[in-house]
Amino acid sequence: MFMFLFLVVALVVVVGAVTLSVVGGGDSGALPDAPPERLRDPLPLDRPVHRGDVEALRFPLTLRGYRMTDVDDALNRLGAELAERDARIADLEAALSGARSATTPSTAPSPVTSLEKPAEEDHR
């Protein structure tokens, strides 16, 4: 009988505590929605992107993986950087080949560029 009364009193206390916490929980009402996590673009804007910048790039997680706009923005930025570097490399290679052709006289034999042995002339 004592155990039964103890359980009834404990149940009343728990129900009362839950009721007071729900009813008198404060004036704020429901909790506000948390702002979504956004990528703060860790890729530098003032200098070219380096390997360490790409390795340090971390996207915030969402319900189904990563936010597509953040990933698309980062990939577009990296694509633009690569295109710019490819254009710069092509310009430098064109300038280098132009400088080589300007310094090499046209009557001089062309240098051997392959690994094969040049054909020997027949000396009789």
Strand content: under 5%
Task: Give the helix tally.
Answer: 3
Radius of gyration: 37 Å
**Roughly how much helix do the residues carry, as a percent range?**
40-55%
The spatial strand order of the largest sheet comes to 1-2
Average pLDDT, rounded to a whole number, is: 80
Q: Structural class, from secondary structure content? A: mainly alpha
Largest sheet: 2 strands, antiparallel
Distance between the termini: 130 Å
Describe what this molecule looks like in 3D:
The protein has 124 residues and is mainly α. It has a domain at 48-102. Helix content is 52%, strand content 3%. It has three helices and two strands, in the order ααββα. The protein has helices at residues 2-23, 51-56, 68-103; strands spanning 61-62, 65-66. A two-stranded antiparallel ribbon has the order 1-2. β1 (61-62) and β2 (65-66) form a beta hairpin. The longest helix is centred in the last third of the chain and has 36 residues, at 68-103. It is rod-shaped and about 115 Å long. The relative contact order is 0.06. The model has no long low-confidence stretch (mean pLDDT 80).
